[in-house]
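Q: Hi! Curious about what D-inositol 3-phosphate glycosyltransferase looks like structurally. Here's the sequence.
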Amino acid sequence: MSDTPGSHTPAPSAPEQAAKRPLRVVIGADTFAPDVNGAARFAERLAAGLVSRGHEVHIVAPAASRKHGTWTEVHEGQEMTVHRLYSWRWYPHDWLRFALPWRIRQNSARILDEVKPDVVHFQSHIVVGRGLGLEAEKRGIRIIGTNHFMPENMLEFTLLPRSVQNRAIAMAWRAAKRTFGRAEAVTTPTAKAAQFLEKYTGLRGVHAISCGIDAHNYTPSFEPRTENRVLFVGRVTGEKNIDVLLNAIALMPAELDVKLEIVGGGDQKRALEQLAVDRGIADRVTFDGYVTDEELRAAYTRSTIFAMPSIAELQSIATMEAMASGLPIVAANAMALPHLVHDGQNGYLFAPGDAQELADRLRDILEAPADKLDAMKRESLKLIEAHDINRTITTFEALYRGERVNDPVIDGSVPQESATAAGE
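A: Let's find out. The predicted structure is below.
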C-alpha cells in the first residue's frame, strides 16, 4: 500500500464495469452471518451484491457451530460458497467464535490454492485476515483490507486486568499495521475512521468507503404520532453505553410517557434490565433481543426517534438504517457518528456519557411541532442517499481490479484526500 496519496481519477462507469470479466473474490471475515453486528452485515451485503453482478464469491469465516467445512449458503437471496473454519467459542462473549490462530495459515493456503482468486478482501486483521493476507502475499494475489475493528471494543471480553489493557491495545494496533500493510488498498467506513486508523498504525492513504445500505428496504412513516417511542438497535454490550440512554429516559418528564425499545442481544442485557427496574422505568422499556429483518424494519417504522449513545462507532449501520427509515437521530458526538448526524438538521449530537444532555435533545424532538419533526425526517432520508450500497460495491469492484478511485462523498463534505491509486 502506498504511503503517499496518488492522483485522483474517476472510477469506471457502470457500463465499463459491466463489460469486464467477472472476478473470483475471497472475502475473509472473523465474524459473519449468523452473527449480528455491523462488520458481519457488511460482509454479507457486499458478498451478495458482488454475486448479483456476476462475480464468484467465496467467504472464509469461523464456523458458527461445531460443524465446519465448505458448502453453499444463501445470503441476501444470493448463493455463495462459504468455507467455515473449525472454531472455538470465546466464552467471555455471548456468541463470538474464532478460528484457531495456529491453523489459520494452513487453512488459508489450502483455500487459496483451491479457489485461485483474483483478489482477497479481508474484513479484519485478527485471525482470518492475518492468515489470508500472509498466504495471498506469498502467491502474488491482490489484497484489499477493510477495518471495522477498534481494539477498545474487545477489552471487556479479554478478561485482562486494567493495568495491562493499554499495552494490549498497543499490541493490537501493531498487529493491525502488519496485516493491513500487506494490502494494496486499505479501507474503513468513514473519513474519521480512516484518520483514526492512520493515526494508530502509521499507514497512509486509507480509503473512506461507506458500508452502504439499500434504503429501499426501509419504510419511513409520516403518519401523525400516537406515542413517543425511542429506539436503540445494536449489540447490548458495554461500549454501546446503553445505560446512559436508560438514565436519560428516566430523566424525562412523566407526561411525555416516553417508551424505549432496545433491539439486540448481548452480555449486558440482564444488568440493563435491572437498571430499568432501579430507575423506575421498567414498564416503559422493552428488550426485544434478536429479531428477524422484517421485525427490525417494523421497529424502525413505528419509532419516533433513534438514539445511539455509543462512543466507538466506526460507522453504525443501525444508525444508517434508522435514517433510511426517516427517523431523526440523537447520537453521541464521538467517532464517526457526526458524519451521519448533522446537528440541528436530521437530529442532534450530545456529549458522550451525558444522560441529561441526551434527555434534553430527545425532548427537543419529542416536543417539536409536526412540521419540524417532518423536516428532520426528510433530512435523514436526504443524507442517507450518499450511502447507497450499489455505489459502495462499484467502488470495491474498482479496487479489486487495481483501478484508481475517489473516495465517495459520505458525509456531505469534499472527497477525502487519502484516495490513492490502488497498488501504488
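A: A fun detail: The chain has two domains: 14-212+388-400, 215-386.
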